[in-house]
Write a structure and sequence with these properties.
Length: 132
């Protein structure tokens, strides 16, 4: 099946794959050819796919997943490999977000943005540490 992973900056990946595992709203979702069509929310976490018999993994942010019988389209705000993640940078972002959440002087929109940033940084850091 054709897998397309698209971020606002680029087409991260586009090719035929044997399988895909995505972090969905209700947990990890395994996708194989001839899967039932669906659209779901992508959660920050680890996305894995098998391409030419080799498993590849990356950290993804929020987005959407569209599945048909012969393709999977993933639209996400972040897609990064293990090598692209700097643990120190992510830890500092987590610390800043946690500190910002302690401050009660935020609008609902600002709180939502801080929580989203925190969940993405936590997902990237967790991915990096598990892939050492």
């Amino acid at each position: 099946m054709l897998l397309n992973i698209v971020t606002p900056e680029k087409i991260f990946f586009s090719d035929q794959v044997e399988s895909t595992l995505v972090p969905g709203i209700d947990g990890e979702l395994g996708l194989l050819p001839n899967h039932a069509p669906l659209v779901t929310v992508l959660q920050p976490g680890e996305l894995r796919y098998t391409h030419n018999g080799v498993e590849h993994a990356l950290a993804v942010g929020e987005g959407f997943v569209e599945v048909t019988q012969d393709h999977v389209s993933i639209l996400t705000d972040i897609a990064v490999t293990h090598d692209e993640i700097d643990e120190d940078v992510e830890q500092k972002a987590i610390d800043r977000a946690k500190k910002a959440l302690e401050d009660s002087d935020h609008t609902l929109e600002e709180l939502a943005a801080v929580r989203a940033s925190l969940s993405k940084s936590l997902a990237k850091l967790d991915f990096k540490r598990r892939r050492r």
